[in-house]
Amino acid sequence: MSTVIAGGPSLPQERRVVTEIPGPKSRELFARKQAAVPPGIGTTLPVFVTHAGGGVVVDADGNSLIDFGSGIAVTSVGNSAPRVVERVRKQVADFTHTCFMVTPYESYVEVCEKLNRLTPGDHEKRTFLLNSGAEAVENAVKVARHATGRQAVVVFDHGYHGRTLLTMSLTAKNMPYKHRFGPFAPEIYRVPLAYPFRWPTGPENCAEEAAAQAIDQITKQIGAENVAAVVIEPISGEGGFIEPAKGFLPKIAEFCRENGIVFIADEVQTGFSRTGDLFACEDEGIVPDIIVTAKGIAGGLPLAAVTGRAEILDKVHVGGLGGTYGGNPLACEAALGVLETIEADDLTGKARRIGEIMLPRLRSIAEKTPAIGDVRGRGAMIAIELIVPGTKDPHPTAAAEIAKKCHAEGLLVLTAGTYGNVLRFLPPLVMPDHLLEEGLAILEKAISEV
Ligand SMILES: *Cc1c(COP(=O)(O)O)cnc(C)c1O
Question: What is the dotted CATH code of the domain comprising 84-344?
Answer without folding.
Answer: 3.40.640.10
